[in-house]
Structure formats: structure tokens, C-alpha cells
Specification:
The complex is a heterodimer of chains A (about 110) and B (about 110). By secondary structure, chain A is mainly beta. In chain A, about 0% of the residues lie in helices and about 55% in strands. Chain A has no helices and eleven strands. Chain A has strands at about 1-5, 10-15, 20-25, 30-40, 45-50, 55-60, 60-65, 70-75, 85-95, 100, 105-110. Chain B is mainly beta and about 110 residues long. In chain B, about 0% of the residues lie in helices and about 55% in strands. Chain B is built from no helices and eleven strands. In chain B, the strands form two sheets. In chain B, strands 2, 4, 5, 6, 9, 10 and 11 form a seven-stranded mixed beta sheet that branches. Chain B has a four-stranded antiparallel beta sheet with strand order 1-3-8-7, with no helix packed on it. Classes of the chains: A mainly beta (about 110), B mainly beta (about 110). Chains A and B meet through strand 4 and strand 5 of A and strand 5 and strand 10 of B.
């Protein structure tokens, strides 16, 4: 699989490989985190969420990992498919109930 | 498919025009949001309505005027906009306003100000 240790704006991955998208958050008081997928010309689509009392959550082909010690969040996509090409945003729900988005990572799947 | 519906999908307006963006959800959500998204940037919060009352205004210029006629509808009235206001305007909703409430987005309204 392909991964990035730090947040990078783009990620190119071979179809069938696993991808890992990283996100650093800033507010240690954040209790809830969401990953969104935004395809070209569409609104952000909910993928998976995780609460601060968890360190891992799995969905269909996706896994989110939360490391509160270093304030790091990652999204793993198994067996990446062409339909996974999109911009992926992490978002944190801060203590004043606002959803703050990260800068986004553009994932391109190579055939 | 999203259950938050936005109209129109595309809007072109002049700087002296008055127009409105509309949003509807039938999920029984009591919190509704307007976000603005510029190209290749993350969405930025503009307004939050909770139980039909304006809860958060992120210092948005008065040329943007939100309205929540009932628990299912959210409007954004536009007047005397500038070309730099051209962007994707996203409506969203959640069960209630608060931590650990998933926010669901509509497909957005693409606004071009000429």
C-alpha cells in the first residue's frame, strides 16, 4: 500500500493497493472526528466517524485510526478502486460545536 | 445520495441582483448549516441554525442573509454580491447542533457573480 507520514495535498495510488491518508488536528479538546469524501462537482459525503474515546473504527473497506497523544488521524482504504478518486477531508468537531476541516488530500487512482 | 436537497444547482447573478439559494431536508434534523467552499479549499462555516434560530454567524457580510422558515427549510438570500463571492455554497444538516452529531451535506449550489 501507499501512505504518507505527514499530510500531503495529493496521493497517487495503484488500483488494488491500500491507501493511507493522514491528518493532523490542532484542538486537543476535540471529541469527534469525521472523514468526508468529495468527488468533483459534488458535496462532501460522510465516510466514517470516530469518537475521542476510541482509537480505531472500521467500516466497509475503510478504517479510521485516532492517536490522541500526537493529535493524528488517518484513513485507510483497502483495495483502492477508481471510484475512490476524490478529495478526502478530515474534520474535527470542536468544543464550540463547529466542524473544522483539514486542508484535504486529493487521491488519484491509477489503473 | 444525499438527503439534503439544494436548489438551484447553478446560479449566475449580477452584482446588483437579488437571488436566493434554497435547501431542504426531511430527516427531522433540527440543526442546519450554510458553508462556503472556494476551489481546492475546504468548506468554511457561514451560519448555523438550531431549532430554527440563528445560533452561529461566522462574521459573514450582511450581503448574505440566512433564513430558516421552518425545521425543514433553509434559505440564503443574496444581494449586492461581489465577484469574489463566487463559490460553491453547501447546505448541511445534523440531528441537533452539538458534538458527536454527524453533519450531512447537500450537493451544493454553484454561484457565479458577474
Amino acid at each position: 500500500g501507499e501512505s504518507v507520514g505527514l499530510h500531503l495535498p495529493t496521493l497517487s495510488v495503484q488500483e488494488g493497493d491500500n491507501s493511507i491518508i493522514n491528518c493532523a488536528y490542532s484542538n486537543s479538546a476535540s471529541d469527534y472526528f469525521i472523514w468526508y469524501k468529495q468527488e468533483s462537482g459534488k458535496g462532501p459525503q460522510f465516510i466514517i466517524d470516530i469518537r475521542s474515546n476510541m482509537d480505531k473504527r472500521q467500516g466497509q473497506r475503510v478504517t479510521v485510526l485516532l492517536n490522541k497523544t500526537v493529535k493524528h488521524l488517518s484513513l485507510q482504504i483497502a483495495a483502492t478502486q477508481p471510484g475512490d478518486s476524490a478529495v478526502y477531508f478530515c474534520a474535527e468537531n470542536t468544543d464550540d460545536y463547529k466542524l473544522s476541516f483539514g486542508a484535504g488530500t486529493t487521491v488519484t487512482v491509477r489503473a | 445520495d444525499t438527503e439534503v436537497t439544494q436548489t438551484p444547482k447553478h446560479l449566475v447573478m449580477g452584482m446588483t441582483n437579488k437571488k436566493s439559494l434554497k435547501c431542504e431536508q426531511h430527516m427531522g434534523h433540527r440543526a442546519m448549516y450554510w458553508y462556503k467552499q472556494k476551489a481546492k479549499k475546504p468548506p468554511e462555516l457561514m451560519f448555523v441554525y438550531s431549532y430554527e434560530k440563528l445560533s452561529i454567524n461566522e462574521s459573514v457580510p450582511s450581503r448574505f442573509s440566512p433564513e430558516c422558515p421552518n425545521s425543514s427549510l433553509l434559505n440564503l438570500h443574496l444581494h449586492a454580491l461581489q465577484p469574489e463571492d463566487s463559490a460553491l455554497y453547501l447546505c448541511a444538516s445534523s440531528q441537533v447542533q452539538g458534538v458527536e452529531n454527524t453533519i450531512y451535506f447537500g450537493e451544493g449550489s454553484w454561484l457565479t457573480v458577474v
